C-alpha cells in the first residue's frame, strides 16, 4: 500500500460571497464543505501529463490506492447494499460477453442517485445531499498548478473539481460516482468536464480501471461519470477495429468496432488533452442534437469508446455503458443460467443506430477531429 503524504500549498478555495454577489450567481451548495482534496499535476504543452504523480515502490499510484482504500473503508462501514465480490459471473459465447448474477442489484439506482443528489434543474448538487451523506463522499479531485500531484488534508473544496462518491449499488469492485461541480456556475456539459476526468484516468494508472458516462434525454443537465475495476477487458475491447481516421499531427485515431451488434467508434491517442478536447466536442454536439450515447474510457484514458443509441420514446430504456461494452447484470438465477450470446446480441442490436446514421456520425467525428488537428 502507498503511504499518504499530505502537502500544504497554494490551491483555490471558496471565499464567502457577499449578499450582492450571491444574488448574481447560482446557489453554491458546497460552500464551507471540507474534505480530502487530491490536486492533479499540471499538463504539459504536448497534451501529456507530467510524470510526477505519486506512486509507491510497487508501482501503484496514490490516486489508485486512495480510491480503493476509501471504497473499502465504506464497504467495511456498511455503506454498500451488498458484497459485489460474492456475485457469480460467467463468460457467454465466442464474443466472450460477460454475465453477472446479482439478485440484489437495483436497476433504478441511477434515477434514485440523480433524484437524491441533484436539484430539479441546473445540475446543481443539493445542499441537503452534502449535509446528510458526507460518509458517501470519499474525497475531491481538482486541477493543480504544481509539477506533481499532491493530497491536501481536509480543506474547503476548490472552486471547481470532481467529487468521488461511493456507489452503494456496485456492479464491480471499487464502483464510484465522479460528479463534477462548479461553485460559480451551473454544471457544464460533458465537454467541460472530460479534461479532468481523462486526467483522473491517467493518474489512477491502472488498466483494470474503467470509466463510464451515460447520456439520455432524462439527464440533460446532470453531468456525472461512473468508474469501476474489472479484472478482465470488457468484451468490446477484445474485438478487431477498422481504422477510419488517423492524424500524424496529434496522433488521434478514430476506429470502428468490427463484428459487433452495436455500432461503435473508438478514439485513441496518447495526447490526452487533445483526445479529451475532440471527444468532448463530439459529445457536446450529440447532446445538442439530443442523441442518446454512452462513453467507455479505458487504457488509462488513452482509449474512448463511443456508443450511440437510438431514441426509444416508448420504453425510455437505454443500455448502460458497461452493457454497451458487453457486461450484463442478471437479477434472476434462471435468466442468468439461460443467458446466451444470441440473446445479448439481440439487446445490443435493438439500440444500435442504422447504417446511414452511423455513416453520418463517422463523418461528423472525422470533421470535428480534423478541426482540432
UniProtKB/TrEMBL annotation:
Compartments it resides in: Cytoplasm
GO-annotated biological processes: glucose metabolic process
GO annotation, cellular component aspect: cytoplasm
GO MF entries: GDP-D-glucose phosphorylase activity; guanyl-nucleotide exchange factor activity; hydrolase activity; nucleotide binding
Alphabetical keyword list: Cytoplasm, Guanine-nucleotide releasing factor, Hydrolase, Nucleotide-binding, Nucleotidyltransferase, Transferase
InterPro entries: GDPGP, GDPGP1_C, GDPGP1_N
Signal sequence coordinates: none
Residues of the GDPGP1-like N-terminal domain: 63-227
Top-level taxon of origin: Eukaryota
Domain GDPGP1-like C-terminal: 235-371
Family: Belongs to the GDPGP1 family.
Protein name: Uncharacterized protein
